[in-house]
Structures are given as structure tokens and as C-alpha cells.
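call fold(seq) -> C-alpha cells
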Amino acid sequence: MRKDIPGFIGNRLMYAMYREALYLVENGYATVEDVDRACRNNTGYWMTLVGVFRWMDLTGVPAYHTVMKDLLPTLHNGTEVPELIDKIVQAGGKGVSNAQGFYDYTPEEAQLWEATFTEFSYKIRELALQYPADVVKRKLERS
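ret:
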């Protein structure tokens, strides 16, 4: 960060997404499953290769400008902890670590999700390292 501000870049971006995801679910626009599926089928595919700004460069900056004019005023910008997550925490939910979260888990399912997440994290990191941020520069140098 170039200036002192609470949180790190990644956390600040992700928490904006978490806030909007919770808003969509709490207000009946989507289910938890709908939001997770949208993330996996959209940002999940490209985020490891490129960041937010290169993604817009690759897919057309003007389209984002057009959408932002109508979409940004409708995004949730609340400053309170969303009720959905507050209820889970107040009930003692910790996610897979105690099998109580946004999803219902048996202890076996929670354990399997934790193991799968760990395995996936290592594998996706290996894949991401095959495509460094300067991938174009490196390929041009080899040419």
C-alpha cells in the first residue's frame, strides 16, 4: 500500500465482495449457492491469471464504464455487519472448523472440505506460478 489505510489490498477488495454477496442473499436476490456458483464460474476462472485491471483491459474497458454508470449506485454500501453472518457467529458457527456456517456440514463433510481446500490451494498456486505477471514479457524475450 502506498498510503496507510486499514486492511491490505486483497482484504479490502474481498470484503467489498463479501458485503455485496451477503446483501444479495439477505435481500432474496440470490441464495448462498447462487453466489458461490457465480464466483466459481466467473472470477474464479480468470483471477489467478490476471488481476482486476488487466481483466478489464482484456475484455473491454468501455463495457465496464457503461455498466458502472447504472450498477454502482445500486451496490450495497452498508457499514454494519450483515445480519446473516452475525446470526451464524452468534450461534457459535465457525464454518468448517466446527461444521457450522453458511452451509450445513456433517463432521465428515467439513473435514473433507478442509482437506480439499488445502489440496486445491497448493495445486492452484502451482498452476498460477506457471503464468507469472510478466508472462508476455517472458514470452516475447524467448521469441
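The chain has a mean pLDDT of 93.
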